[in-house]
Amino acid sequence: PFLLKIRNQIKYFTISSWRPFNISTFITTKPYDLSFKGISSAETIIKNRKLIANSAGFDMHKLVACQQTHSNKVAVIKEKDIGKGSFKYSTAIANTDGLITNLKNIPMAIFIADCLPVFLVDPVNNVIGVVHAGWRGTFKKIAEVAILKMKKTFNTSPKYLKIALGPSIGSCCYEIDLKLVDKFLKIFKKDRYGNS
User: What gap in Å lies between CA 37 and CA 42, rounded to an integer?
Assistant: First the structure.
C-alpha cells in the first residue's frame, strides 16, 4: 500500500489507500536525522523536523513524539500531550514506543532505522496509531498491546482495523542467533486460540 512520492525535493512514502479516511502518512527516506537520539545536534534535528513539517503540511508545534525504549508501552494522546517531544527530547512521552489517538490533525512521530513501523487506523471510530516495533517490542507484543488499547479506549473492533507494516530491515541484512529464534518460537508458536 506504500507509494513513493517527492514533495519539495523530499522523497517520502505514503499509504495511498488511507486517503479515503482523510489520513496522511509521511515516511521519510534515509538522509534525514529526525531523532534526538541520533548522531546530529539538536539544532540539526529541529531544522530537519521543520523541513519535514513544511513538506508534509503539518504544524510542528503540534507534533507528538515519544522517548522510544524498545518497550511495549503505548500512550493514548490527549489534548494535553500536543507538542510533546516536538522540540526537545526531555518533553517527549517517556518510555513509550506506540501512540494512539482520536484527535484530528495531530501529527504523531516514531523514529525507525531498521525497526518495523506499524500503522493502525480504525475508520469506524476515527482512531489512528503508530508503533515502533523492533525485535524487543515485537517480542513483547507491542502491536497487540496497541490494538487492545485501541479496543479498550476507543471501542475499536479488530474486524474493521486497517494495518500497514512499513519499510524495515530484511533477512538479507540482519542476522539473528538461534537462541533468539527459540525465544520467539516459544512466545508465538500458539495463537490466542491455542493453535500451533
Answer: 9
Query: Model pTM?
Result: 0.91
Contact assessment for residue 122 and residue 156, using Cβ atoms and an 8 Å cutoff: yes
d(CA 33, CA 49): 9
Q: How far apart are CA 182 and CA 179, in angstroms?
A: 5
CA 68 to chain centre: 10
How far apart CA 5 and CA 102 sit, in angstroms, is 27
* d(C-alpha 141, C-alpha 137), whole Å: 6
Amino acid (one-letter) located at 107: P
Write out the three cell numbers for 156: 475499536
Q: Per-residue confidence of the chain (196 residues) as pLDDT tens digits?
A: 788 999 888 889 999 888 889 888 998 887 788 999 888 899 999 999 999 999 999 999 999 999 999 999 999 999 999 999 999 999 999 999 999 999 999 999 999 988 999 999 999 999 999 999 999 999 999 999 999 999 999 999 999 999 999 888 888 888 888 888 888 888 887 655 556 5
| 161 within 8 A of 120, measured Cβ to Cβ | yes
